[in-house]
Design a protein that fits this description.
It is found in: Secreted, Extracellular space. The protein has 653 residues and is of the alpha/beta class. Helix content is 28%, strand content 18%. Strands 10, 11, 12, 13, 15, 19, 20 and 23 form an 8-stranded mixed sheet that branches. Strands 4-5-3-9 form a 4-stranded antiparallel sheet, sandwiched between helices. The radius of gyration is 24 Å and the shape is globular.
Length: 653
């Protein structure tokens, strides 16, 4: 049936058209990446077998994406008559599905180049066409050369083409968004396998490895800090009581049945139950023994084989904060990937809804491998699709520098977040903790490559996507008595600033995207900031056109003062997400919807947030952006004032 339908589409699209030879002979560069991402090195000593299997996936151009902003504004702008009327999955699928012509054109080209029809598969969502190809065939189709790459730190292997790939002009202009695997090194780091260690001549042991692409800032301690319930100690030890006091955030009275808070994590990083209980015993005794609702995606499960902050610290901390703040509401952990292959946020998108199993970024066989995983201890079950319903709030710790990916890739993934927003999900990302530098304290040189130390500012992704809420990082001002300061209405927090402890690291991130345009909801706030005379001396370092998406949008505490037992930029997004989850619960009780995409409402009613005007975001050899009164590129609109936020969202339909 599938082959027959493809032939019908092909016939319909090609009647009266120019000959296939003329249509598909003129190749143009479709995507290029001038510099191999840092820490990835091509293996000069290894040539790929031309006959080796290299499945290709062709992301088809979708319809109506030019109307995406209008669509999401309609359900998220407080002035809209359709506010809160989120779309169903069926509405999303039918609105953005590629045209029959696009499916037919790509299929015709593949058939013309010797790819048998039984090797061509159109996904159920019609967004991707998969081809069971070889390295030789992929190189022939894309006019490129594939190589094996190794990660310099982990030895992790990857297969990608070098520099660029080309496709026929008609496909590039009208029918194809991107093709994977090609240039996209969107690879969450994992511990090296035994084979990778042997290849690098290393011992077969468990090395300490920072698995976070957002690099958690922490000196991890297995013991909970003492004395945390003293509010005068919040500048030393940040506790749930401190957070509730800072943001006037009371405990929830009940859990809404249909409410959900999802936190994504990627194997082999996973939580450790005993560490959760240490925290709960100190700050929330009723939670001792409780665990998140764990959704294993493609083999994701709690692992106890390797210990240390690099493996458990980040997710332990995020779960401790989230579970304590939203109780009795449950938290869902979307644990993706087995211990061998790992996973990425693409894998999570796959599992949230069956349509994503043939969508976004991927199914890159070196990134989101086809299961079963044949490696020892690998997951041998089926590919996970449509397991959980998309949660009301979703946070994840993984981010990259924009320069490490291609604009086509970033744009396509960004539209995925918009689709989640259309369906009622609030997607939150931390703005990173390297100030104006990219992940790893890397800046942009004149030729666009990433370098450590100095250069142009290097914005992160997906924080710069206009359809996510980017969360900056604050800390309590050291030495301040927050009880007295709050009573007087004084400033209690400032932008995170710990570079004196961790040089080049520990600053709230933010900046102007080099890929995404400024959304209408933030134009007034950003243009006001751009008029500041403080920016004139650094304008050559960033995208100062006045037309670029700027971030962060908001901020929240992510630093544990002088103790630094457990702190991370991702904590800010986790804390903010906890407040949104509780607001969702309050709205769901009387039958209202979740709040979904929150940026338009927060920019329109910024008084529901407390301005943070102290600090800056140093990096790249400069002082970075300054925090000022009103919105800024360090702390956004400010930190949450829960009663005001609740009043705002409860007043909306």
């Amino acid at each position: 049936m599938l082959a027959a339908s493809l032939l019908c589409l092909l016939a319909a699209a090609t009647l009266g058209a120019a000959s296939p030879t003329r249509r598909y002979i003129d190749h143009v560069v479709h995507e290029s990446l001038e510099h191999t991402p840092v820490q990835w090195t091509k293996r000069e000593d290894f040539a790929l077998n031309p006959g080796a299997r290299l499945p290709l996936r062709f992301g088809l151009r979708q319809q109506n994406l030019h109307r995406m902003y209008k669509f999401i504004d309609g359900v998220s702008n407080p002035q809209s008559k359709s506010y809160g009327q989120h779309w169903t999955h069926e509405q999303v699928t039918s609105t953005f599905a590629p045209s029959d012509e696009s499916i037919a054109a790509v299929t015709e080209w593949l058939l013309e180049n010797g790819i048998a029809d039984h090797r061509i598969e159109v996904g159920s969502s019609r967004l991707w066409i998969s081809v069971n190809s070889t390295v030789e065939e992929a190189e022939m189709l894309l006019h490129t050369k594939y190589h094996a790459y190794d990660h310099d730190t982990t030895g992790q292997g990857y297969v990608a083409c070098e520099g660029l790939y080309s496709i026929p002009q008609v496909l590039s202009e009208h029918h194809v968004d991107l093709i994977v695997p090609t240039l996209h090194f969107d690879v969450p780091l994992r511990a090296p396998t035994d084979g990778e260690r042997r290849r690098r001549g290393e011992r077969d042991d468990k090395r300490s490895l920072d698995l976070s692409l957002a690099h958690p800032l922490a000196i991890y301690s297995p013991q909970p800090p003492a004395g945390g319930e003293d509010l005068d100690s919040c500048n030393i030890t940040m506790t749930p009581t401190c957070l509730r006091t800072l943001y006037s955030f009371p405990p929830a009275k009940r859990a809404a049945k249909s409410n959900s808070y999802g936190i994504a994590e990627f194997s082999p990083a996973s939580y450790l139950g005993s560490d959760l209980d240490l925290y709960f015993s100190e700050y929330s005794p009723k939670l001792v023994g409780q665990r998140p609702i764990q959704v294993g995606i493609d083999g994701g499960a709690e692992q106890n084989a390797t210990y240390g902050f690099n493996f458990q610290g980040r997710i332990n901390l995020n779960l401790q904060i989230a579970m304590t703040l939203v109780a009795p509401q449950k938290v869902t952990l979307l644990q993706a990937g087995d211990d061998i292959v790992g996973a990425s946020f693409n894998t999570v998108l796959d599992a949230l809804d069956a349509s994503y199993c043939t969508y976004e970024g991927g199914e890159d066989p070196t990134l989101d491998p086809t299961y079963p995983d044949q490696q020892p201890s690998g997951y041998d079950g089926p590919k996970s699709c449509g397991i959980p319903k998309p949660p009301g709030v979703l946070t994840t710790p993984v981010s990259l520098s924009e320069a490490q990916l291609t604009p086509f890739y970033e744009d396509r993934q960004c539209h995925d977040y918009a689709k989640l927003g259309l369906m009622g999900t609030t997607v939150l990302y931390s703005a990173s903790d390297y100030g104006v530098a990219g992940v790893g304290n890397r800046c942009l040189s004149d030729d666009g490559s990433e370098v450590v130390g100095s250069g142009r500012y290097n914005p992160t992704f997906p924080g710069g996507c206009p359809y996510v809420t980017s969360v900056g990082v604050t800390q309590v001002i050291l030495g301040i008595n927050i009880t007295a300061a709050l009573a007087k209405g004084e400033q209690v927090e400032k932008a995170m600033s710990l570079g004196h402890i961790f040089p080049g690291f520990g600053y709230s991130g933010g900046g102007f995207s080099n890929v995404f345009a400024m959304p209408a909801y933030q134009e007034h706030a950003v243009h006001r900031y751009l008029a500041s005379p403080n920016l004139s001396s650094i304008s050559q370092y960033f995208n100062s056109t006045g037309r670029a998406r700027a971030f962060p949008d908001v901020s929240a505490n992510g630093v544990d003062g002088q103790v630094l037992r457990s702190s991370s930029a991702s904590c800010s997004a986790t804390t903010f997400g906890s407040l949104i989850t509780q607001i969702n619960g309050e709205r769901l009780a009387p039958g209202k919807s979740t709040v979904g995409f929150i940026n338009p409402a927060l920019y329109a009613f910024h008084e529901v947030l407390k301005d943070v005007a102290i600090g800056s975001s140093p990096g790249c050899g400069t002082d970075g952006f300054p925090a000022v009164e009103g919105w800024d590129l360090v702390t956004g609109l400010g930190t949450p004032i829960y009663p005001r936020m609740l009043e705002l969202f409860m007043s909306l339909p």
